[in-house]
Write a structure and sequence with these properties.
8 helices, globular, 0% strand
Length: 209
């Protein structure tokens, strides 16, 4: 693969996964009377971006999404967009989008191929769900004038759905990395166990983690 093609391919993948996250926001949200904001599928795209693209490209895809949102495009769940969304009670979660994608991607690519489903689930939970809450909750406390206990209780109903997203993202990533084995750097016990296709793909591109 030529060096000219690599940046073009990376840019295309970044744009595609920004679009994937935006498209997941089109799934009708679930409104519950006990939650301050609806339950959406959009955070699934954040984890998928990292688990499939790696840290650098995963981060860039979600940064691109937020940049487009800031310009006014209604790409967030519920058709929200504009600079005002970054001043609401969920601004911490929004800023966590690229951080989570970058961290999940970095950890996934550090572990490398072959993609391990159980390791992928742990990465998605620890680097995805836990980190997203760690960044998002302070925003609720500061902007929403909530106590830490109130912020934690307000987010408790989201936990089952977020756990399901982490599991689903791992299964999707497993399928993608099985179909395209050259995406991940090989870190298995036997370097020679790679298929010829995987070895060619891995040796012909820079690692994005």
């Amino acid at each position: 693969m030529s060096t000219t093609a690599r940046p073009a391919r990376d840019l295309a993948l970044i744009a595609v996964f920004a679009g994937v996250t935006a498209a997941l926001g089109l799934i009708p949200p679930i409104y519950l009377p006990i939650t301050p904001t609806p339950i959406t599928a959009q955070s699934l795209g954040i984890i998928l971006a990292g688990a499939i693209l790696g840290g650098r490209r995963g981060f860039a895809s979600q940064a691109l999404l937020l940049g487009l949102v800031a310009l006014g495009l209604p790409l967030l769940a519920g058709g929200r967009g504009g600079i005002g969304v970054f001043f609401g009670v969920t601004w911490g979660f929004l800023l966590g989008y690229p951080v989570v994608a970058g961290l999940v991607g970095w950890l996934t690519y550090r572990i490398g191929a072959p993609y391990s489903l159980w390791k992928g689930i742990l990465v998605n939970i620890a680097g995805g769900m836990v980190v997203l809450y760690a960044i998002g909750l302070p925003g609720m406390v500061l902007t929403g004038k909530l106590t830490w206990t109130a912020a934690l209780l307000a987010n408790a109903p989201y936990l089952p759905g977020d756990l399901i997203k982490c599991l689903l993202a791992a299964f999707v990533a497993k399928a993608v990395h099985t179909a395209y084995p050259g995406l991940l750097p090989w870190r298995g016990k036997s370097e020679g166990a790679r298929s010829p296709q995987a070895a060619f793909q891995a040796d012909s591109r820079p690692h994005a983690g």
